[in-house]
Amino acid sequence: MELLKLLSANEIVAQVISFLILLILLRVFVWKRILGLLDKRKERIILEFKKIEEANKQIEELKAEYNLKISDIDQLAKQKIQDSLMQAKLILEEARKSGHLAAQEILDGAKANIKFELAKAKDELKNEIIDLTIKATENIIQEKLTEDGDRKLINDFLEGVDKLE
Amino acid sequence: MHQESQHELPNLVSFLADKVGLTTHLGAQIYLWENVIFSLIIVVIISLIAYFGTRKASMIPGRLQNAIEVVVGTLDDFICGILGPKGRSFTPFIGTLFIYIIFMNLSGIVPFMKSPSASWSTTLALALCVFVYVQYSAFKELGFLGYFDHMMGRPRGILAVSVFIPIMMFLLHIVSELVRPISLSLRLRSNIWGDEMLLSVLSGFGLPGIPLIIFSTLLAILAAVVQAVVFSLLTTIYLALVLTHEEEAV
Fold first, then answer.
1. Bridge partners of B211?
2. Which B residues, 152 through 211, put their C-beta within 8 Å of a C-beta on chain A?
3. Interhelix angle B63-83/B213-242, nearest 10 degrees
């Protein structure tokens, strides 16, 4: 009972009211604002972490893609070099073939020329021999023959020479 | 209202009451409402800190906002650590209680101030708030029948055990619920009152240049913090006890 003398109903009520006032004020100024802010910050941090993770994933993917592309580029370069070598070989082969053809053509032309020149020379030689023979024969036999008869004789002689060749 | 002041250090209100004259009606009233006046001063101080610390609340906090965030975050973690995720809804009540009590306890160390929590009326008022809040939360969480079912305890056995023991448990729970505000308020009041007495008695002792009050002040700070934590922790535990338990939820 002595202890109860320490209590005062008025003070209890006043203290309850002052606590309730503080509770309301802090609910408005602190708890709602700060807890909301802390939650928002937490969410933002989580979001940022997620973004970082996603960015890391993207970097990894890009890295893998990059490595793949590099290996592709290497293969492509090798392929291109191979193709170029093949092409060069083909061009070389073609050049060689066309060179051979041109040489053959030149050779054939030269052979034809030679043949032609040879035939021409033969004809000239024939004519010269004919002329010489006619003159020589005229001188030796002192006999005037007709030109056609001379020619026939000489031609026969020359054909005989040709056959001997 | 003010029966336990014989050994207290003088404070602002007692000076004012003396100035006005204790024999006058106003002086007597001031002296009588001393604890309430100090409580209101503390309410104003806390509100001002809260207002100036949060009026320009932003994602990148200033010093005061940062300090408030640390306190709020720590209290929220502490309460949610005991009550689980639903503890968030109880954070404002328990957090306010903690801040209010720690300010009241520590105000006794400030020269010309007094701990309102050294008065049983103050601590009983807070304990009654806790009692009402806990019962309200229990009714809200469990429902009317669920509350009584919870009060009858678990497990329930066969026939006699299923009737007799639950009734006994119910009565026991009622008594324990009613005793809690008294134990809660007396514990806080007695500790802080003891600190006040110690400070008052030791203020006149000590070696020249080293007053003994320095050591007892450190002790008083420790006691002020511990008592605020104990009061808040017990409130949290009372809430945890009346909220749905896992075995009841199944």
1. B206
2. none
3. 50
Query: B59 to chain A: which residues are within 8 Å by CB?
Result: 37, 40-41, 44
Mean pLDDT by 10 residues, chain A (165 residues): 78 92 91 89 93 95 92 91 93 92 91 90 85 78 68 78 65
Looking at the complex, does the CB of residue B3 fall below 8 Å from at least one CB of chain A? Answer: yes
DSSP single-letter state for residue B211: E
CB crowding B104-124: b at 16 or more within 10 Å, else e: bbbbbbeeebbbbbbbbbbbb
Q: What pLDDT does residue A165 have?
A: 54
Structural Rg of chain B based on CA atoms: 22
How far, in Å, CA of B1 to CA of B240, rounded?
A: 33
Instruction: Provide the residue ranges of all domains of chain A, joining segments of one domain with +.
Output: 11-164
Using the Cβ of A44 and the Cβ atoms of chain B, whether some distance falls under 8 Å is answered with yes
Residue (of B140, B128, B20, B127) closest to B89 by Cα position = B140
Contacts of A10 in chain B (CB under 8 A): 1
Contact list, A43 vs chain B (CB under 8 Å): none
The average pLDDT across B39-63 equals: 88
Find the helix or strand (DSSP H, E) in which A74 lies: helix A32-141
**Arithmetic mean of pLDDT, B41-59:** 89
List of chain A residues whose C-beta atoms are within 8 Å of the C-beta of residue B92: 23, 26-27, 31
Closest residue on chain A to B189 (Cα): A6
From A59's Cα to the closest Cα of chain B, the distance in A is 29
- Residues 19-58, chain B, touching A (beta carbon < 8 A): 33, 35-36, 39-40, 43, 46-47, 50-51, 53-55, 57
Beta bridge partners of B210: B207
Long-range contacts of B24-33 (CB under 8 A, 24+ apart): B31/B2, B32/B1, B32/B2, B33/A11, B33/A14, B33/B1
Pure H helices in B21-90 = 25-32, 34-54, 63-83
pLDDT over threshold 50, residue B250: no
Confidence of residue B208 (pLDDT cuts 50, 70, 90): low
What is the arithmetic mean of pLDDT over B84-98?
A: 91
Residue of A16, A25, A34 with shortest CB distance to B125:
A16
User: What per-residue confidence (pLDDT) applies to B112?
Assistant: 83
